[in-house]
Amino acid sequence: MINISIEEFAEEIKKEFNDLRDLVIDKNRKYNNSVLNPIGCFSNMSPEEQILVRMDDKLSRFKRGEHDDEEDALKDLAGYILLLLTIKRINTSNYGISFSSAADVLPQGKLLDDNEKSRRKNKGK
Fold first, then answer.
1. pLDDT, the chain, mean
2. In angstroms, rounded to a whole number, what is the distance separating the alpha carbons of residues 114 and 104?
3. Using CA atoms, how far apart are residues 13 and 68, in angstroms rounded to an integer?
4. What is the pLDDT of residue 82?
5. Which H, E and C letters describe the chain, residue by residue?
């Protein structure tokens, strides 16, 4: 048993969330927002599907004991969950944005609105 008050534990949770938030934001910048704007050379999966695949890969390596640092692996998984929750919130919000596929994101990282998606779809016919 860990001897810590509810308030102290709440503060520790806040510290972990803040660290995780900073880690996810830093990695997203480092990888040039690839979670929303992947190169798409080999896959055209939605951002949600891509995150789930990354989680599967991470869990598979974890299960086989092929991770260098357990804490880093857990933070990576938590980061993927945070990204997934964020994308799901964007998809269900009033932003008028839906990530149905990686093709919904312009190369500049800007999102296509529903009118632009429709225009592009009709242009391809």
1. 81
2. 9
3. 24
4. 95
5. CCCCCHHHHHHHHHHHHHHHHHHHHHHHHHCCCCCCCCCCCCCCCCHHHHHHHHHHHHHHHHHCCCCCCHHHHHHHHHHHHHHHHHHHHHHHCCCCCCCCCHHHECCCCCECCHHHHHHHHHHCC
State the Cα–Cα distance between residues 99 and 91, nearest whole angstrom.
7
Q: Which two tokens stand for residue 30?
A: 């480092």
Task: Tell me how far apart the alpha carbons of residues 98 and 96 are, in angstroms, rounded to a whole number.
Answer: 7
* Residue 63, token pair as written in the block: 């299960």
pLDDT of res. 91: 83
> What is the spatial distance between Cα 39 and Cα 76, in angstroms, rounded to a whole number?
21
When pLDDT is cut at 50, 70 and 90, the band that residue 102 belongs to is: very low
pLDDT tens digits along 1-38: 889 999 999 999 999 999 999 999 999 999 999 888 88
Backbone angles phi, psi at 88, to 5 degrees: -60, -40
